[in-house]
Amino acid sequence: MNYSSSRPLNRRPKKTLSRSNTRITLLEYCERKYYLNYYTFALKESNPDLRSETLLLKWLKNIEMWVGEKSHFLLSDYLHALKKWEITEEKIEELKNNMKMEMRADFDYSKERDYEDRDDFFWKFWLSEHFYWEDADSLLEPAIEKVCGNLDRFIASPWNEKVQDYFNSAKFVYVEHPRTPDFESMKVDIAKIWIRDVSVLAGPDFWATFSDTDFLILDWKSGKEEVLDNSISDQLKVYALKMLLKKWLTSLNWIKIEAYEVYLDSMNSYGWILKQEDIDWIIEKIKHDVEEQKQLLVDQNPYKNQPVDLMMFRKTASDKKCEHCTFRDVCQKLD
Ligand code: SF4
Asked: What is the pTM of this model?
């Protein structure tokens, strides 16, 4: 078993500008954070020392982010075994025990790492609590409990029965491999909506095809519950659009796409059968997002994808956001 949290380097998207939900969320959160995360290379000439520190900070996760990532890993491991009819009580215990070992190994490595060594990228996972010299020992076991508890809650919920029904009845079921994201398969075919020179990335955690016109999308959530009135999340809308575009369509017409976000902490779910207005809205939102991203590029050229001067990337005005930001060390030094 590979206990490393590292992501594969050989499947990263090319240099062209890309738009993904994560990327847009970061841009809206803080433009400087967006710069530090996606344009670290631009510091190479102006500030090589800060560049090497920023590269390191890009891999930092706080405990909450780490719990979210591991919850996705464990649920994916479980669903893949369920799909192959390999699930027994012993198998569930084995999956949880493997996860406990994995998390303890990650934690120990993060705790012992020499953070002055900027070239050690063997184990691409470090906790921001360790980098910033916070005492994180008391957080480890609750984090493990939360991850294993998320799986237990899923198994005890009606969703466990439902996904087994989907494995039985659907023509095709996709379960994501979050340990090894496949950026190629995440690409959304956007030529049909007249967006050029950028790649749009989106990959749901789970989807099922029941017929040529009937689809289901599920996305697991481990963070704070976001209840949207009379709407569903942009992320689900992008996934639905991706499915339509695979058929060279932008209108639902006779196509039924049902999509839900499932919160692992409460097992509450939010979503519905997509409406045409959801699709129309997200197409315009993607176009708008891409234009916003281009404003921060030299010559607004998405193909070259070179950022304008760092000072054009505005810092958030929220002290609360900065308080927990993994980049706060370099951010201060850049002022
Ligand atoms: S420390 Fe604050 S201003 Fe700086 S990158 Fe982070 S969130 Fe943005």
From this structure: 0.88
